[in-house]
Amino acid sequence: MDPADLLETRELRYFLAVAEEMHFGRAAERLGMAQPPLSRAIQQLERRLGVRLLERDRRGVSLTRAGEVLVLEGRAALDAATAAARRTRRAGEAADAAASGRERLVLAVKAAASHELLQKLLAGYAEEPGAAEVEVLPSGLCGQGEMLRDGRADVALMHTPFNSLAGFDSEELMREGQIAILPAGHPLAARTSLSLAEVRDIPGLPLARWSTDGVYPPGPGPEIHDQTQLAHLIALGRTVTVFAESARAWLWSEHAAVPLTDAPPVVTHIVWPAHSRSLALAALVRTATRL
């Protein structure tokens, strides 16, 4: 392999810090190092790759086209390296735990997911011979996929069409309708049903927006970071949202739920990384599909 094609994670961290700060001094401070060795490291990286990554002037730095490519590829590479380290540690911990009879699985769930389904799954699995300990890890509204990819979780409950299952193995568990969740005092709260078009066009009540893989869709509605924030904003009359029918379980008295006539069903899946070879995980999936 050509040495020019090799990149060290240290070099990527240095370069990404400069690219994100757009300033060598601030990047050096962030990395906890002096500026001269940071500048030399970036220059050595450019010489080895044979391309200019940064344009430098008195005001700071800017990315070249080659630099923009390395930002995208470098972030992905560092994320992959971090995930590999986490999965390696977890594999070692799982082997040690299995040897001592203390195996553990981490299950990522949306904070607003159906508690009834989760309770049935945990209770059913606990009755399996040799069942592992299951740690339930609540995530943001669409954060379970990221937790699986970066190694923080072994398995997740995910919901289409809100979550993407691309790159994972999965089994379907249940289907349910959707509801609009509005402020209880809003005129539309008295309706027996609504259409998606009506929910999207309520004057002064924009749809809440949450991220998919860190990206928020465009729109006037507020960016949502967790269920508590969403619940408060609906109660205050600042937003409206669409959720699965089971979300009725966490509604406040200041909320109203109205069924949607034309929304696609929400399908709950149990999801895991395609490369997993965990026997404890396989037993959990069997329990979930049986229930």
From TrEMBL:
Residues 7-64 form the HTH lysR-type domain. InterPro entries: LysR_HTH_N, LysR_subst-bd, WH-like_DNA-bd_sf, WH_DNA-bd_sf. Keywords: DNA-binding, Transcription, Transcription regulation. SUPFAM superfamilies: Periplasmic binding protein-like II, Winged helix' DNA-binding domain. It comes from the Bacteria. Pfam families: HTH_1, LysR_substrate. Belongs to the LysR transcriptional regulatory family. PANTHER family: HCA OPERON TRANSCRIPTIONAL ACTIVATOR HCAR, TRANSCRIPTIONAL DUAL REGULATOR HCAR-RELATED. This is LysR family transcriptional regulator. It comes from Actinacidiphila epipremni.
